Each structure stands twice: as C-alpha cells, then as structure tokens.
Amino acid sequence: MASYQDRYWRHLMVSAALLEEDDRVLLVENLRPWRGASEWTVPAGILDPDETLLDTAAREVEEETGLRVTEWEGLAYVVHRIFVPVKLQLAVYVFAARSFEGDLRIADPDGVVVDATWATREEIPKLMGSNVLSDPLLGWLEGPRVTRFYEYRETSPDGGELLRTLQSRPPR
Which positions of the chain have pLDDT values less than 70? Predict the structure, then answer.
C-alpha cells in the first residue's frame, strides 16, 4: 500500500497579477536558490491564511513592485503545474489589472524579488525561459482576451509538457 506522502502530494495556491503599460508587461525577477538561478514571472505569491485570491494578487504587486492595483479587469488564466519530482501540485490564478498607480520600486519584504522590468512580447520568452511561464502569458496578450486554463506536467526545471488547455467563450 502506498504511503500517505505518495498518495497525497502537497498542493499550493498562488495568485498573480498581470499589469500592462504601453504594450509591455511587468515582470519581476525572483531568486530561486534551489535552482541556482533566478526566474522571471508576473508578480505572484502564495495565499496568506484567510486571504482571497484578489487580495493576494494586490498585496504581491504592492510588496514586490510598489505599484497599487486600483481596478481589476478579471481572471486572465489559470495554470495547474504538476511537479513530478517533488510531488507538488501548484494552482496559479493570474488576474489582469485594468488600472494601477504608483512608482515602480523593488521592496519585497521576503527578499525574493530582486528586479523588475516592463517586457515586450518578444522579450517575454527569453526572460521567462520556461514554456510553462511564457506560453499562457503570450496566449493572453495575443488574444482573444478570454479566460484560459492550462495544465502542465513538469519533470525538470526547463519546462513542462502541456497536458491540456481550455478557453472560455468570447463575449457576444
């Protein structure tokens, strides 16, 4: 019989924010010591106890970049990441900001975010590296602007196998 750890993997929920300005997207550079490298993503973080998804996304944007989201457009996409080697499943909910204010500054209290940049569509795959990070973001940017769902199985840090994708219907 399989052990509890083998039968029930760890599960984490992450909330993220997609901020756009002048045909560029805000990306932050995250230190990933276990990988021996950094990773560029949209601002994101794990939910605190009793925190909503939108509250988490707003908090992470402000903590990591100094910017404050003043209005949300809606849910852009969800990514379900299955990390086979570490027996972890991660659900990432990415919300599009309609408007925001403030000045960009790096002030992450966790010390994970060390840089930020406004990236063009062409720069996104180079900065993000992994298809699991860049493909859903590029799908949103290239349109149509409908909510999408992606599932990936990852066996190495270099990328993942796309298992499936779904998208909502465009509004009539």
Answer: 1-6, 33-36, 157, 170-172
Per the DSSP assignment, residues forming a β-bridge with 50 are none
Largest CA distance in the chain: 56
Q: How far apart are CA 65 and CA 42, in angstroms?
A: 11
57 Rama sector, left if φ>0, alpha if ψ -120 to 50, beta otherwise: alpha
0.70 exceeded by pTM: yes
Structural class in CATH, domain 4-167: alpha beta
Q: Which amino acid is at 82?
A: I
Question: In angstroms, what CA-CA distances link 116 with 25, 37, 82?
Answer: 10, 16, 27
